[in-house]
Design brief:
This protein is of the alpha/beta class. It has two domains: about 230 residues, 3-Layer(aba) Sandwich (Aspartate Aminotransferase, domain 2), CATH 3.40.640.10; about 120 residues, Aspartate Aminotransferase, domain 1. The chain contains 14 helices and ten strands. The chain is globular and about 70 Å long. The N and C termini lie far apart (about 55 Å).
């Protein structure tokens, strides 16, 4: 990214030499992201992140009078978009999940109506890491002739993704979830899928996303795609996650979504008798960064909508923490995290007992 941040400022839409150099870098990154998803480069639209990708897929697909199906555990980028559509004359349906946070594909089939226009179900949950049966849902959508969007922000870089195997028309990813730069993302748009742009302006991204391209960010996203395709670290990361959970379960009540397949880097653990926000703060002061829900919802007073949809009580949802690993996480860091969490949980339980 450095040359495009410090030296080369060409607009990728300009025909002069500097512009064409920027265009070449953008198209190289587009090809890298396409290889990551198993699609054609022309089917990749660069965006400002996962939220914009989700919003473009949802708002760009649906009109008043249409019917939309989604799940109760989606990221707010989808949930709030669908809720807004409901205020604009669109019929919306939020499907429930089981105790592990998994949507039943047959519930999707039963929810179909003659005017169903879009199904939007995430690939991996951002709070629990739980995987949804997107390939089965993709077959159902294909049989019904309904557009299918997959939010794969939490899955990209952690699982192999092939848009043809999934059978989706639209799929969202974000750069920072796979060691790329923040504020970058992409939307796969299957050839022949008509999409209404969110913004009016120039003919950038084949008239699907107006605005001068963020060349440095796009280059970073493309490089991140190349790196994760070469890394092959998922089994190692899964082993570290399992080591973390085994250590934490000596002091925790359980793993939310632990009975379902999950991405390798995410664990959501609940601690009886401990306020999650207090534990987040205590651990932060000791140098351990965790969260009590989605990072974009930090500071919210309401407990996680994902955990409540799974049937957790508000108190148990508030006592849950999300742990996220990455490719550079070490065994020593895992053991240190176990030690810190164990000591702070014991301290907070002791304080709680005294105040009672």
């Amino acid at each position: 990214m450095r040359p495009f941040l410090l030296e080369q400022f060409g607009n990728a839409s300009s025909i002069h030499q500097e512009g064409q150099h920027a265009r070449s870098a953008v198209e190289q990154a587009r090809a890298s992201v396409a290889r990551l998803l198993g699609c054609r480069p022309a089917e990749i639209v660069f965006t400002g992140g996962g939220t914009e990708s989700d919003n473009l897929a949802v708002f760009g697909s649906v009109r008043p009078g249409d019917h939309v199906i989604t799940s109760a555990v989606e990221h707010h980028a989808v949930l709030h978009a669908v809720e807004r559509l409901g205020e604009r004359g669109v019929e919306v349906e939020f499907l429930p999940v089981n105790g592990d946070g998994v949507v039943a594909a047959e519930d999707v089939r039963r929810a179909l109506r003659p005017n169903t226009r879009l199904i939007s179900v995430m690939m991996a949950n951002n709070e629990t890491g739980v995987l949804q049966p997107v390939e089965e849902i993709g077959r159902i959508a294909g049989e019904a002739g309904v557009r299918f969007h997959v939010d794969a922000v939490q899955a990209a870089g952690k699982l192999g993704i092939n848009v043809d195997s999934i059978g989706c028309h639209l799929l969202s990813i974000s750069g920072h979830k796979m060691h790329g730069p923040q504020g970058t993302g992409a939307l796969f748009v299957r050839r022949g899928t008509r999409l209404e742009p969110l913004s009016a302006g120039g003919a950038h991204e084949r008239q699907r996303r107006a605005g001068t391209e963020n060349v440095a960010g796009i280059v970073g996203l493309g490089q991140a795609a190349e790196c994760v395709m070469r890394s092959g670290t998922q089994e190692r990361m899964r082993g570290l996650r399992d080591r973390l959970e085994l250590g934490l379960l000596q002091h925790a009540g359980g793993v939310n979504g632990g009975g379902a397949p999950r991405v390798a880097n995410t664990s959501n653990v609940w601690f009886d008798g401990v306020d999650g926000e207090a534990l987040v703060i205590a651990l932060d002061l000791k140098g351990l960064a965790v969260s009590s829900g989605a990072a974009c919802s930090s500071g919210a007073s309401e407990p996680s909508h994902v955990l409540q949809a799974m049937g957790l009580s508000p108190d148990r949802a508030r006592s849950s923490l999300r742990f996220s690993l990455h490719r550079q996480t070490t065994e020593e860091e895992i053991d240190r995290a176990i030690e810190l969490v164990s000591s702070q949980v014991a301290r907070l339980r002791e304080l709680s007992a005294v105040t009672r």
